[in-house]
Amino acid sequence: MADTLRLTEIFYSLQGETRTMGLPTVFVRLTGCPLRCTWCDSEYSFHGGSIHALDDILAEVAGYRPRYVTVTGGEPLAQPNALPLMRALCDAGYEVNLETSGALDIAEVDPRVSKVMDLKAPGSGEHARNRFDNLMHMGPNDQLKFVLADRVDYEWARMQIDQHGLADKGGELLLSPVHGQLNPRELADWIVADNLPVRMQLQMHKYLWGEEPGH
Ligand code: SF4
User: Do 7 and 30 form a contact (C-beta atoms < 8 A)?
Assistant: First the structure.
């Protein structure tokens, strides 16, 4: 359908992770995801939602007068109109983040958008879906994220960083523990022991609001 998107929610909160952690941000959560990560915390966005005109989404975002907008899901890129949405958000002057699984092609994403792309580790159950060609479209403004469930995932991430020369690409490398599964202290100790060139992050919104949707 032209100029419409299936939307789960729009809300204003603090960004809980990534380079803009702690900054007030409007979240545009699009409905649907072709993946099923074992530790997914946004399963409520897999189905349902409602159809909205792109212009209506832009108007609702503008109502919050934000500086930062995050387009998330689900997997936003599963909807082709996510591309014109992000372009329009950039044209409106916002600083736009895209949270994407790494399983779909990111080549056509507006270059003004900071892509926050996952590389799915084995513990997600979806690591066969990683689209490694996407790495050639990641630049200094982008952020590559590993969510880790255990030591096996950590070793896998370390190997990817090494094999693909990810530390030399200029963007952020983010390592997060699966909330409630991998002890953050353990991950911190591993990173320091290995002198790994990454930024560790915790999901701040989980500490503030738990699993409540809308944050
Ligand atoms: S890609 Fe994201 S939304 Fe989709 S199943 Fe995995 S964690 Fe959940």
Answer: yes
143 is in an annotated binding site: no
Q: How many distinct structural domains can be found in the chain?
A: 1
For residue 214, tell me if it sits in a domain. Answer: no
Structure tokens at 29: 């959560």
CB 27 within 8 A of CB 135: no
CATH of the domain at 163: 3.20.20.70
Q: How confident is the model at residue 85 (pLDDT cuts 50, 70, 90)?
A: very high
Please tell me the total number of residues recorded for the chain in this structure: 215
| Ligand 1, CB cutoff 6 Å, lining residues | 33, 35-37, 40, 42, 73-75, 101
Residue-level pLDDT at 52:
98
Residue 157's domain comprises 4-209
